[in-house]
Specification:
7 helices
Length: about 230
């Protein structure tokens, strides 16, 4: 299981995403479809991040299921039987935890706690990225709001400069309405995905992870290492 990616790689990734968003937004302004283009971008990004957040929760659920299966096997047949019978390419966390404890000793609580903290950090890597995605979507919504309001105020200012030209006033009002549409649509899309959907999935994932780490400690305490030590002697 991989941990967090490198900080510089994350910065380059986020910079490329923001740059793409700005470029497409400029294209939307050029073709006169700013609201549609920017909202579409936020919806696409929100859908992608929602899928990633759901995948993170599903990954933790599967990991807990595999660890529980190994725990039940060790409880029934012995921890050594679990180690000897395991043929998977990626051992469960419970499997790796018991191996670590066997090497360092059950009394070495500092090493065990350090291992558990490190494993929690590794498991929180995808969750941290998903939590950052919420802030990213909200920031995109604010960017769309500011841009939309700027377009609105600029259009109103331009239309009020010469009220005798009815056509110019009408066009400025249409542009102002388009700016308001951009502000409201982007804010709504960003709040819906970042502030409601993804944040809720992240909250459930965070609670599930904390519960999983607590259960791992309970499973470890109820694992019988004494018979294994007797066999090795």
């Amino acid at each position: 299981m991989k941990g967090c990616s490198e900080p510089m790689a994350d910065m380059r990734r986020w910079f490329s995403v923001v740059s793409s968003f700005v470029l497409v937004a400029i294209l939307g302004i050029a073709i006169g479809q700013t609201a549609l283009v920017m909202t579409g971008q936020i919806v696409a990004a929100g859908t992608f991040f929602l899928h990633r957040a759901s995948s993170n929760l599903r990954m933790l659920t599967n990991e807990r299921s595999r660890s529980y299966k190994d725990y039940r096997f060790a409880d029934q047949y012995g921890i050594k039987s679990l180690w000897n019978s395991y043929t998977g390419s990626q051992p469960s966390i419970y499997f790796r935890l018991t191996k670590f404890v066997h090497r360092h000793g059950l009394d070495n609580t500092e090493a065990i706690q350090a291992w558990m903290r490190n494993m929690q950090i590794v498991l929180q890597g995808p969750l941290s990225v998903s939590q950052n995605a919420c802030s990213f979507l909200v920031n995109l919504g604010m960017l769309g709001t500011v841009l939309g309001l700027t377009m609105t105020f600029a259009a109103i200012s331009s239309g009020m400069s010469d009220t005798s030209d009815i056509k110019a006033v009408t066009e400025s009002l249409q542009t102002a309405l388009g700016g308001l549409s951009t502000a409201f649509m982007t804010t709504l899309a960003a709040a819906f995905f970042g502030g409601v959907l993804i944040s809720r999935v992240n909250l459930v994932t965070c609670r599930f992870l904390n519960e999983f780490m607590t259960i791992l400690e309970l499973w470890l305490q109820s694992t019988d290492f004494e018979n294994l030590e007797k066999e090795e002697r």
